[in-house]
Amino acid sequence: MQAKPTVNRTTAAAEGDVVVLLIGMRVNHFWAVHQWVPVALAMFRMLGELGKDRSRGLLSHVLLTASPRTYYVVQYWESKEQLYAYAHSPEMFHHRAWAILNRKERKGKLRGHVGLWHETYIVPEGGYESIYADMPPFGLAAATGVLPLEARGRSAAERLGRRSKAATSEEPSAKAH
């Protein structure tokens, strides 16, 4: 009789707030290759730029597709301040790409061939959890490292309510009132 295989369950080793940026594009007209290919290449250029300088704050990213028309990147950042700094830095390609887009828009040269979108989430500690079963580090775990699942609690409620020692030592004590 064979023993049951052990399921390797882990969780992300994230501490503190988690900053997640979803950013992507939608191809509205496939035939307008000259419009959407530069947008896709710009995203790869920005990811390359961020990958060369880890001090900018991008921890990890995952490239995904939602449909044959919609492509996006899930990005995990060290802090919202680093995300804002990258987005507004005149030295970074993101700044130049948006300047080009804004110029085209002002001149009436945007024709709706490609859509752009992003969503940013700042998730406070205790407001996220992750479980990976027999998975290499992925998503938040690829960004922050992995821990055995039990290190964060045996239930979703325990993991979602978790506060790091640093966070709990900063909270005012009930006895101080």
What do these coordinates show?
With 177 residues, the chain is α+β, with helices and mostly antiparallel strands. It is 33% helix and 25% strand. The chain is built from 6 helices and 7 strands; from the N terminus they run ββαββααββαβαα. It has helices at residues 33-52, 80-88, 93-106, 140-144, 156-160, 165-170, and strands at residues 9-12, 18-27, 58-65, 70-77, 114-123, 132-133, 146-148. The strands form 2 sheets. The chain has a 4-stranded antiparallel β-sheet. A 3-stranded antiparallel β-sheet has the order 6-1-7. The N and C termini lie far apart (62 Å). Mean pLDDT is 89; it is low at 173-177.
Short account of what is shown:
The protein has 177 residues and is α+β, with helices and mostly antiparallel strands.
Low-confidence stretches: 173-177
In helices, the fraction of residues equals 25-40%
Distinct helical segment count:
6
SS content category: alpha+beta
Largest sheet: 4 strands, antiparallel
Percent of sequence in beta strands: 25-35%
Which key terms come to mind for this protein?
single chain; 177 residues; alpha+beta; 4-stranded antiparallel beta sheet; 3-stranded antiparallel beta sheet; 6 helices; 33% helix; 25% strand; elongated; disordered C terminus
Outline the fold blueprint.
Layout: E1 9-12, E2 18-27, H1 33-52, E3 58-65, E4 70-77, H2 80-88, H3 93-106, E5 114-123, E6 132-133, H4 140-144, E7 146-148, H5 156-160, H6 165-170
Antiparallel strand pairs: 1-6, 1-7, 2-4, 2-5, 3-4
